[in-house]
Write a sequence for this structure.
């Protein structure tokens, strides 16, 4: 209890400091606006919004300021995806795919404004729930994480890649694992972290420092979207007219229980390493369908269905930041982009992170969610107008943004070549339904996995039992093995037989 | 053919590529000292500390998964359809669209951004993409590719070495000329429409030049970041005005 009150006091202090600085509002308004626009434009993602801003801020700005912009864009983009989902039946981001199930039928019935209003408030409350969990748990977990050593870190990194590969794969789970392995392999390029041995550089000095995170992220998330978006000849659709957007308090209060449940589910799913807001939205939607009284109406224009998805995907933001800040393992692809930003600013998240930085992040999340709800309720018509911008206009702008962002952060023109190369590989992977998130998480966690795995073996003189003798490591190893086994056809067959019995 | 069959046909090819890559990188990994790691006569550690350990594990796992993928692809009939047009992922109209797009992006990234003023290069790329892809017309796509190809080839051929990237401005002039032609084409094609939206087209053309200019200035002077081609025709003048006129005025 004392711990919690300390956390709340620390948060209040950070909040007052931030809220009393006028610069904060300038960053918040611009970044949340940009985030919502990115989310609202189909094809542009929250990860891309965060990555592009990372390219702009680089390491020349104080991290506290750039975090305001990055988190603002993250919160805005996850929420912004609901606009095209509701009004056009096109999910703006993968996170809002479940929103379209009920949002669009509501818009077709002329209740688009009501759907947008309730979505906005549900997203706001969802973000606050995720943030509350972040505040409550991150400090506790930081204390626990002091006992986490190299074996646990290596297995956690592997678990993050495997879990992300399993859950994000639309076709075969093996494709997710292959994607993760490609990412981990990409992280092997350059000088190794322990002996500085040169690996796979092909005598190109640029590769000595390995693949840079920002160009890889830009290549993985921007180039395939540009190639895919420009390939289609779809013209922008005109959204249907919407009425009153500000929700009625009665309608909101009667659904607070659903919002709270979805917020908790979203936070929990978001906290799983490598699993993003889209999975959170679908899980919450599935749970809502089975426990709600009007579950049979889900998919036909149910307000509860809409709220389940939206509250959860925004709550997942707070959840995704828990493993990021405690262990340095991103909970979602946008969190991976945030980790990239932290890395280029030489901040290493994990047990040694400054607790005041965590409180600062929590305060930013709260302010960003307030900015989001105000913008969503009172300037929604601007974002509805944005939906009418054709892809052939906004995608070239994205190419310009990614080019200058990628160039500026690190190695100049070589980073552009890397961005393009990664983009082409990921485009091919997309065509074969390989998920991108495990690849990116693999690239980011590869260095950590390599270093901690070898350090563990070094400490035990090459004895693999170090991964079993420590309780934490044994649990994580079991989780990794179970995860792989659960996806094998033989295991699935046994389980289906057991279920039948 | 069902979507699953198409995917399995592509998986067949993907498995072959992954298999070949795994073997290649396993061979490359054998160049890294593994057993008896040491340097300059000093023993650094055992095999468990070698820089090759994790890559060996990763590429072996990738090799294994490529074999599993191949098994799945063959079992589900992927090998049968592997040589069909769909299995190879070929579709005439889509191929022309993707290849035009790839050529435009190639010229933009490899030829124009390093050599030509960023604002002009980006304005040209923006205009050719709008010109070529807005309504999916093959003729417009061809014109777009020719226009960026002209500027890109000139920059590549005349100023190939890195030492010449930021010096001369003749490639900037060629790119600017291509941009003007692209703008004229956009306006001409718009006028041919039943209901021409000329004002919208013109504002797009203005945006194509102003947006990259704004971004590059914001990046260089606001965010204090590295920007491409500082010696470019437009940016060098903007930078001069900024440091010689604007900054002293601001300080006063």
């Amino acid at each position: 209890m004392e711990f919690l009150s300390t956390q709340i006091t620390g948060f209040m202090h950070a909040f007052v400091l931030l809220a009393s600085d006028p610069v904060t509002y300038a960053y918040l308004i611009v970044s949340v606006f940009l985030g919502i626009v990115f989310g609202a434009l189909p094809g542009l993602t929250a990860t891309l919004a965060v990555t592009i801003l990372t390219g702009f801020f680089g390491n020349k700005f104080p991290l506290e300021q750039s975090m305001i912009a990055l988190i603002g864009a993250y919160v805005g983009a996850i929420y912004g995806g609901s606009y095209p989902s509701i009004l056009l039946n096109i999910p703006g981001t993968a996170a809002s795919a479940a929103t379209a199930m009920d949002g669009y039928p509501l818009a077709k019935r002329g209740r688009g404004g009501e759907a947008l209003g309730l979505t906005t408030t549900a997203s706001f409350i969802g973000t606050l729930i995720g943030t509350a969990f972040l505040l409550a748990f991150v400090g506790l977990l930081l204390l626990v994480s002091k006992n986490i050593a190299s074996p646990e870190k290596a297995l956690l990194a592997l678990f993050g890649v495997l879990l992300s590969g399993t859950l994000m794969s639309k076709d075969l789970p093996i494709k997710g694992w292959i994607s993760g392995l490609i990412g981990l392999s990409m992280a092997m390029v350059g000088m190794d972290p322990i002996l500085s041995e040169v690996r796979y550089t092909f005598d190109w000095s640029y590769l000595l420092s390995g693949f840079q995170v920002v160009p890889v992220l830009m290549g993985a998330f921007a180039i395939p979207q540009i190639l895919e978006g420009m390939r289609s000849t779809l013209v922008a659709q005109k959204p249907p007219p919407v009425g009153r957007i500000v929700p009625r308090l009665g309608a909101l209060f009667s659904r607070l229980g659903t919002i709270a449940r979805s917020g908790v589910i979203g936070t929990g799913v978001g906290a799983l390493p490598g699993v993003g807001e889209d999975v959170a939205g679908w899980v919450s939607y599935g749970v809502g369908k089975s426990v709600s009284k009007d579950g049979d109406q889900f998919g036909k224009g149910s307000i509860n269905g809409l709220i389940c998805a939206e509250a959860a995907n925004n709550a997942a933001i707070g959840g995704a930041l828990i493993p990021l800040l405690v262990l340095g393992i991103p909970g979602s692809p946008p969190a991976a982009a945030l980790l990239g930003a932290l890395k280029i600013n030489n901040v290493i998240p994990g047990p040694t992170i400054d607790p005041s930085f965590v409180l600062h992040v929590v305060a930013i999340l709260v302010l960003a969610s307030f900015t989001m709800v105000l913008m969503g309720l009172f300037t929604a018509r601007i974002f509805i107008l944005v939906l009418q911008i054709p892809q052939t206009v906004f995608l070239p702008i994205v190419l310009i943004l990614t080019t200058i962002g990628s160039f500026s952060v690190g190695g100049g023109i070589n980073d552009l070549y890397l961005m393009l190369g990664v983009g082409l590989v990921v485009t091919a992977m997309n065509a074969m339904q390989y998920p991108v998130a495990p690849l990116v998480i693999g690239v980011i966690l590869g260095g950590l996995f390599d270093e901690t795995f070898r350090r563990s073996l070094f400490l035990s003189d090459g004895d693999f039992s170090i991964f079993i003798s420590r309780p934490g490591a044994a649990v994580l190893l079991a989780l990794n093995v179970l995860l792989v086994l659960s996806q094998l056809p033989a295991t699935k067959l046994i389980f289906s037989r057991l279920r039948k019995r | 053919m069902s979507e699953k069959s198409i995917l399995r046909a592509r998986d067949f090819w993907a498995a072959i590529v992954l298999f070949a890559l795994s073997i290649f990188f396993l061979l490359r990994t054998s160049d890294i000292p593994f057993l008896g790691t040491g340097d300059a006569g000093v023993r650094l550690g055992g095999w468990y500390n070698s820089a090759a350990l994790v890559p060996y594990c990763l590429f072996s796992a990738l090799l294994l998964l490529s074999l599993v993928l191949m098994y799945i692809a063959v079992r589900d009939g992927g090998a049968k359809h592997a040589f069909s047009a769909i299995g190879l992922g070929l579709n005439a109209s889509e191929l022309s669209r993707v290849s035009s797009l790839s050529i435009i992006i190639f010229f933009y990234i490899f030829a124009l951004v390093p050599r030509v003023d960023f604002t002009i290069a980006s304005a040209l790329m923006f205009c050719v993409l709008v010109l070529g892809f807005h309504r999916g017309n093959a003729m417009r796509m061809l014109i777009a590719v020719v226009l960026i190809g002209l500027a890109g080839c000139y920059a590549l051929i005349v100023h190939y070495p890195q030492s010449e990237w930021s010096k001369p401005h003749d490639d900037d002039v060629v790119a600017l000329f291509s941009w003007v032609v692209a703008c004229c084409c956009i306006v001409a094609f718009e006028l041919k429409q039943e209901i021409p939206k000329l004002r919208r087209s013109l504002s797009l053309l203005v945006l194509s030049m102003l947006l990259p200019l704004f971004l590059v200035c914001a990046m260089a002077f606001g965010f204090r970041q590295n920007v491409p081609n500082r010696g470019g025709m437009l940016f060098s003048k903007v930078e001069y005005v900024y440091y010689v006129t604007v900054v002293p005025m601001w300080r006063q």
About this structure: Strands of chain A lie at 190-191, 198-199. The longest strand of chain A covers residues 190-191. Chain A has a mean pLDDT of 88.
